[in-house]
Amino acid sequence: MVEMEKQVLTPVNENKPQRATNFKWRNIFRGDNRALWTILALIIILLVDRMVSPTFFTVRMVNGRLTGSLINTLDGAAPIMLLSIGMTLVIATKGVDLSVGAVMAICAAVSAVLINRHEAGSDNILYYPGFVIAIAILVGALCGLWNGILVALFDIQPIIATLILMVAGRGIAQMITDGQSPTYTDETLAYMGQGTIFGMPFPVYVAAIALVVVYLLVRRTALGLLIESVGINAKASHYTGVNATVIKLFVYIISGICAAIAGLIVAGENTYADPHTAGLWSELDAIVAVVIGGTLLSGGRFSLVLSALGALIIQSLRIGLYISDLHPNANLVVKAIVILLVLLLQSKEFKQAVGRLFKPVLKLRAVFK
Amino acid sequence: MSTNEQPALLEVRGLTKTFTATPALSEVDFTLYPGEVHAVLGENGAGKSTLIKVITGVYKRDAGTIRLNGKLIEPRSPGHAQELGISAVYQEINLIPTLSVAENLYVGRQPRFLGMVSMQLMNKKARKLLKTFNIDIDVTRDLSSYSIAIQQIVAIVRGVDLSAKILILDEPTSSLDRHEVETLFSVIRSLEEHGIGILLITHFLDQVYEISDRITVLRNGRKVGEHLTKELPRAKLISEMLGREFTETLGKRSNQITNGDSKHDTFLDIKGFAKRGMIEPFDLEIKKGEIVGLAGLLGSGRTEMGHLVFGINRSEKGEAFVESKKVKISSPRKAIRYGFGLCPEDRKVEGLIADLTIRENIILALQAKLGWYRHIPYKRQEQYADEMIEALHIVTTDAEKPVRELSGGNQQKVILARWLVSNPELLILDEPTRGIDVGAHAEIINIIKRLAKEGKALMVISSELAEVVDYSDRVVVLRDRKKLTELTGDEISEDAIMQAIAEK
Amino acid sequence: MKLVKFCLLLALMVTFVGAVNVKAQDGGEGLTIGFSQIGSESAWRTSFTDAVKAEAEARGINLLFSDAQQQQENQIAAMRAWIAQGDVDAIILAPVVESGWDDVLQEAQDAGIPVVIVDRNVDSDPSLYVTRVSSDFVHEGRLAAAWLVQATSGQCNIVELQGTVGSAAANDRMTGFNEVIALFPGMQIIASETGDFVRAQGKQVMESFLSSEDPANICAVWAHNDDMAIGAIEAIKEAGLVPGTDILVVSVDAIPDIFDSLDAGEANATVELSPFMGGPAFDAVVATLNGEELPKWIPVAGKLYTNRADYDADHQ
């Protein structure tokens, strides 16, 4: 008996066969076979785009800048992708951040107003482009912190807590710009939206880097696990000693920072900050991207990479609608239908139902064989 | 009572169900006659839950037939099974905690008066229905305000009332105290008389012999035997379940410590902890290497005492000392920092992170303790998981399976493993053996003893007196949210505990 | 034949511009007028409010201003307060929605207070208000098209950036523009998509057009507002083309930013969406108080501008 008991608690058996690798693709997709369907959906939409416009995959170099519908898709998807990165983490904790669009407007407004002072000749170092960008991102982080405090410390339901900033945010942005839509000419800020490296638009790099950085941040630390744990079972996590307050503050701050960068990109694209329209309805795009990426709104396991693919799906769909001959009146309906189809493609129940539907056909075929 | 000449009520033939390559059931036959209690027994993972989930249409079977009264049926969902006359009451209560008892009884079929849902009529009917089972409670209160025991009974009553021909009871008594078990059994006997067939799944062998007419034993997804209960000796039953000879008693630990033993230092000393509505002021001392059992009836304040010690609920007064140093236990995080751990009573709600893998569940407490930035390397995580799967005999293909796919006993082991990995000084175990099969039961008790031998302090809450007597160095007896007395050393016996509870 | 049409068109333009270019007049000194504004949801709205306030000050009118913050209830409450206090001579209402005004307009009429509707429409019986002063979106579309016909001699492949789908501004500008180019077989719209009146969307849609169509085949972009035009200009530049030369840019609104582009030669023409509706509205008040009969709709349409100097000259 004693022998057996000893065996129960002996530490690691070093002779046990080691597992083959540390890094697994399934870790990136969180072991979810919905990944396959998300990628398939993206490919199908891109192929449909190609059918609508034969030049869809054509990429040309013009003035050191790559142009073409594919590049437009990547460029346009960058802000949604940024938002969806933060949104993924928030949703994984069983929350939602409705304020990201408004935070984009606030940060765009902050950057434009500050850089205008620089352009007006102010010597204040805080108005230098680098500092302006840093301040705008800091403001985004503060907006996130505000949301996080409401959710984590005051235990207000996320949808309500972030709704407050969603509604108030555009008002704040208008106060910052004094009701105007300021334009600027600063090249550094413009670069955020218009710059290129090796011909590829700068926003694409920003989104890709953000994806990698946040991925490493959550998966090379324990944050990802703790985020999922809080989202799946808050009570059990609490009993296990997980500090949900810190986790929630963290995800909302990340979401705020992502929104700030997205705001800088959108402002930089047009060297202009419009508090009324910057990032308008982007929160919905981001949420849809996350859902297409397979993260459940009820929280839990998440995949940043799949959310980014979700953002690409939304943008390829949008570009496809732009270049199609469909009347703009139909845009929203078509968009809704395609998103529904993508979600159905991922639904196990739906696929089973379709399978049942085709069973008689298969049987029939077997008879004729 | 029932004979084989009667036509069968439910006939299951050749049932097979496979989950991602591992068969959960293979070619299982099962026959239920009207007016009998048929117990399905087996260790965790034997396929009992899968069997009833296939019968009630939760899972789609891969092969086999199900006949009800001789007619082939295809249950598509629990709702559909219910329409066919098969009602199931699961281990985990599937009712809505925020609705009232009456609403839970009649949800989806509320009594109407002049076309309108009538609360009054519904409450009246609910009271009457519960009265027939000798239950007298306020049916207008939220279900969640009642104990798990009452919730379970409400679930059973609802199942019975849905004009069931077959009632499936999955661990119905695991949360009931003796008196409530009696109530339930009287209900079951009256159902038998009405010709209802009852499929019973339970881990309490005494109860199997008390109430059942027939026993089917499953092991590793196969049927290994079907017997009339009266013709099956216990030893044979147990060896069929385990597939090996079983040595029944585990024996008392030889080196049980006695009060005042100088070799053992006090780990935790609590003076005057209390919380209004939960538990009256109590003192509690736990030494290193000591197992303190908490005994008392359901609702006596056992769990509440554990929650106060672990900081889930903050004590309103009193003080606590860990190794003679004064501490403030204001949250589970604090408690964990002082070296505490807690395996909660309600595994599903308070313990498991169901969608995470076994590995992730096992390392979670340690990781939370280390903080998010001190990430345990994957390789180390895998080692921890593999080591624990082996050490605690967790039945699974690998550590990357979501923990929700495990059976109850294995889930309990995962939670235990979670704390073992984080290496606490004091482990609080709330009903560690509830809903667990014989084999796992013995293993878990062995682990408890082993931990004490290693110098850990343990606080074990259990409603199984024999078990408490077996491993405890000291037994704290509670009644009506109040600590009554402590028994130590040779004073500890089932009789003594019961006497203490019964004493005025 | 083409020449005849062209002359007809020019004549049409001149009459329209002459007819609707209501010059600000004095009058109304000492009156107290309540002005219920929708809110401040856009820069144009803000400049509209400012223009009305400035006009009132210049005329010596005592203006009671109420910002409804997008809520019809706030507008009705403000109007009821003015009616109850009886200290206003007239009310100017910029309604947030079309329906639901019958009761309060009736109350105003019963109290003998004339109401002038500005900007958006109401669906109440016209007898309940004096008149409606608003932009003539159709005319703006016609004017833009007329300029483009002239600039391209009636030969042009146009891409169109529509406003928000279903909005009156988008629908009417499209109608006006299409009416005119229908007269010229050489003028056709080869791609059309909504940019929601937003600069960023305008840029994205234009980028898509430039990728899916042969850029050399695009002669002009017609944007339903200046913001989308400015976005399109960015896209054209990024595609390595010269806006205003390789691709003509014509739009509506005359916001300050477009004049930078006009003067830089990157945009070609804009039609003013006049925020100066205060003058005609006050005129209407004065006229009705003097017992004059007024038409039920007084359209206000700005002129077409191709540079800042002309615009500044018109607005001192």
What's the domain count of chain A?
1
Please state the second-level CATH architecture of chain A. Answer: Orthogonal Bundle
| Largest interface, C-beta within 8 A | A-B, 38 and 52 residues
The total beta strand count of chain B reads 22
Share of residues in helices of chain B? 25-40%
What is the subunit arrangement here?
heterotrimer
Adjacency order of strands in the biggest sheet of chain A: 1-2
Order of strands, main sheet of chain B, comes to 6-9-10-3-11-12
Notable traits:
heterotrimer; A: 369 residues; mainly alpha; ABC transporter involved in vitamin B12 uptake, BtuC; B: 504 residues; alpha/beta; Rossmann fold; 3 domains; 22 strands
Fold and architecture overview:
- The complex is a heterotrimer of chains A (369), B (504) and C (316).
- In chain A, a hairpin with a 2-residue loop joins strand 1 (60-62) and strand 2 (65-67).
- Chain A has a single domain, classed as ABC transporter involved in vitamin B12 uptake, BtuC.
- Chain A is globular.
- With 369 residues, chain A is mostly helical.
- Chain A has helices spanning 2-9, 25-28, 34-52, 69-92, 100-119, 129-153, 158-177, 187-194, 202-219, 223-232, 234-239, 244-270, 282-292, 304-323, 331-346, 348-368; strands at 60-62, 65-67, 196-197, 200-201.
- Chain A starts with a helix and ends with a helix.
- In chain A, helix 4 (69-92) packs parallel to helix 9 (202-219), helix 5 runs parallel beside helix 7 (158-177) and helix 6 packs antiparallel against helix 7.
- Chain A is built from 16 helices and four strands.
- Chain B has three domains: 10-242, Rossmann fold (3-Layer(aba) Sandwich), CATH 3.40.50.300; 266-339 and 424-504, 3-Layer(aba) Sandwich (Rossmann fold), CATH 3.40.50.300; 347-423, no CATH class.
- In chain B, helix 12 crosses helix 13 and helix 12 packs parallel to helix 14 (408-422).
- The longest helix of chain B has 16 residues, at 178-193.
- By secondary structure, chain C is an alpha/beta fold.
- Helices cover 45% and strands 19% of the residues of chain C.
- Chain C has eleven helices and twelve strands.
- A six-stranded parallel sheet of chain C has the order 2-1-3-4-5-11, sandwiched between helices. In chain C, strands 7-6-8-9-10-12 form a six-stranded mixed sheet, with helices on both faces.
- In chain C, helix 9 links the parallel strand 9 (248-253) and strand 10.
- In chain C, helix 7 (199-212) crosses helix 8 (226-238).
- Chain C is elongated.
- In chain C, 51% of the residues are buried.
- The interface between A and B is large, with 38 and 52 residues.
